[in-house]
Write a structure and sequence with these properties.
Layout (H helix, E strand, L loop, with lengths): L14 E2 L6 E2 L1 H4 L4 E6 L15 E6 L5 E7 L16 H9 L3 E4 L16 E3 L10 E2 L9 E2 L2 H11 L15
Length: 174
């Protein structure tokens, strides 16, 4: 016999991570990413938190070295992230294209060791954000500066940074 119950025509609403295109929660679909600048040398291993990245970028720096930049919208619950290292102006510009809040420890150029005024930054050194990071005493300096998602979230809140993606921003999966 034919069903007499009305068909449910309510559309199914789905949300997607703006960096990966993967299905996610509504909150994460509008969450502003954080770009963590990480060391990428033998002394930096193992790196912590990279498994939670939405996008992982590698940038060349002076003397043949590289930096990793971990972009993620779901950082709040990550237990350990690091080692946090210095950024470069071209890294800041690319992370800025993702509307990311940028977390790093200084820059390579003394003249550039000022805030990038066009970006929201969490610079452990220049902004003197002592509660943002901690030292992992099992590692050698300067590869021992770590943070957590909770410390990052707390510092973002204390600085009053916007936590949702800019309305005008066009990310790949938005």
């Amino acid at each position: 016999p034919p069903s007499t119950e009305p068909e449910d025509t309510t559309p199914i609403v789905r949300y997607f991570n703006p960096l990966t295109g993967l299905e996610t929660t509504q909150a994460l679909s509008v969450s502003r990413p954080v770009a963590f600048c990480l060391g990428n040398t033998a002394y930096s291993l193992p790196q912590f938190g990279v498994g939670s990245s939405d996008v992982l970028l590698e940038f060349p720096i002076e003397n043949g070295g590289t930096r990793l930049v971990m972009l993620t919208t779901d950082y709040a619950t990550i237990d350990k992230i690091g080692p946090i290292r210095s950024t470069r102006d071209y890294i800041a510009d690319i992370a800025g294209a993702f509307d990311a809040i940028q977390l790093y420890a200084g820059t390579s150029d003394q003249k550039a060791s000022v805030l990038f005024p066009e970006y929201d930054t969490l610079d452990y050194l220049t902004q003197n954000l002592q509660s943002l990071c901690y030292l992992d005493t099992s590692r050698v300096m300067p590869h021992n500066l770590m943070t957590t998602g909770a410390l990052t979230s707390s510092e973002i809140a204390s600085l009053g940074y916007r936590t949702e993606i800019a309305e005008a921003l066009s990310l790949p999966f938005r």
